[in-house]
Structure formats: C-alpha cells, structure tokens
Amino acid sequence: MLPQLFPQPAYAEDQPSAYTILTIHCLHRGFTTGAILGLVAPFARSAFTAILRRPASVNSLPWTARLLSSAAVGSLGGTAFLAVGMTARMWGREEIEWQDRSWRILSNTGQNREDDWSFGGLVLGAVGMGVAARRPGGFAMGIPIWRAVVGGAAAGSVLGTVGHVLTSSKDVEDVEKKIIAGEGPLKPKEAS
After folding, report:
1. Which whole number is the average pLDDT over 13-20?
2. Of residues 102 and 145, which shows the higher confidence score?
3. DSSP H or E run through 131
4. How far is the CA of 120 from the CAs of 44, 67, 125, 155, in angstroms?
5. What is the Cα–Cα distance from 183 to 176, expressed in whole angstroms?
6. Burial tier of 25 (Cβ tally within 10 Å: 0-12, 13-18, 19+)
7. Which of 9, 31, 173, 187 is paired with 181 by a 20 to 30 Å CA distance?
8. In the predicted structure, residue 53 carries a pLDDT above the cut 80
9. Orientation of helix 145-167 relative to helix 109-134, angle to 10°
C-alpha cells in the first residue's frame, strides 16, 4: 500500500513524506493489533465465565454482533494506543530519524506485502459488512451500523494478515535467495 503511494529514493535522507509514511504505518498496525485483541476478548470472557462457573450475563446481542462490536472497539483502541505510542517515541526526534524509519518500512518487502493483504482485507470487510448490516435482519443486527462496518474492517484486516502469513513462506525464501545472490532490495551499492 505505502510503496504505491509514496516513492522511495535511493537514500533514506532523501525520503519525502516521512512523517506521513510512519504515521500511516503505525496507525494501520495499531488498528490490526487492536482488532486481534478485540476478536479474542469475547472468547476469553466466555472461557473465564465457564471456568469460574458463573452464569453468563444476559446479553441480547447475537454472538456475531458481539464479536463485531468487540473487534470495532479493539481496533479503535489499538489505533489510539499506537497513535499515543508513536507520538511518545518520536517526540523531539530529528527529521532524519523519521526519514530513516519510513525508508526502512518502504524497503521491507515482507512488511509491504503484509500491508497490502491487511489493507485489502480491511476494505473488503468494511464494504461487505456495510452492505450486510444495512439489509433487514442483517448480519450484525442489534449494533449500530458504524460499529458493524468498523468491526467488519477490523475482522477483514486480521483475516488479511492471516492470509499473508499463510502464503508468505515461499516469497520470503525467494527474497532471501535474491539477497544472498546480491540481487534483492538490499543489494550492495555499486562503486562509482
């Protein structure tokens, strides 16, 4: 996603839009990380309720609606958490540090592939859930449409990440072979 939007120069100190690149990357990672935690939370709550042998709370929402709602809250919380974390980590840093981190993100083919898969899942999840939630008796009845759409985007982002992980081992091997052969993204600079 990012390499298609932002060009990468030969050297990190020439990287334009470094603040934007790093911010988008951190917020996207926060969204996906929060979504993972949000999707796990309802299962953890059910398990703890069963272990403690307490009666489950009466919840009128269907399981899918609770899952989507939890994913939405988790993804928004994760995004906010990483926004604060990035600000704290990068506060007062020199521009070259922002450029270096941004340049490294753009250079990392595995990260770029993960971003593409995750963002693709995010868009498909949001659109799919937006359509499904608006139908009468829709998939996410009982929760507001915005929460269903954000929850669908969160679930899609996680599924995109899982898709990347399940299909990445061959690509990683190919990149490693290119690097060893001196042909990959980290090939040595030619002497002038």
Report:
1. 93
2. 102
3. helix 109-134
4. 28, 20, 8, 11
5. 10
6. buried
7. 9
8. no
9. 150
158: DSSP letter: H
pTM of the model: 0.81
User: Hey, what are 39's tokens?
Assistant: 């999707």
Q: Are 69 and 141 in contact (CB under 8 A)?
A: no
Q: What is the dihedral of CA 12, 13, 16, 22, to 10 degrees?
A: 60
Task: Give percent helix, percent strand, percent coil of the chain, each to the nearest 5.
Answer: 75, 0, 25
Could you tell me how many residues make up the chain?
192
- CB neighbour class for 61 (10 Å; exposed up to 12, middle 13-18, buried from 19): middle
Q: Which two tokens stand for residue 137?
A: 């008796």
- 29-41 b/e (C-beta count within 10 Å ≥ 16 → b): bbbbbbbbbbbeb
The residue type of 146 is W
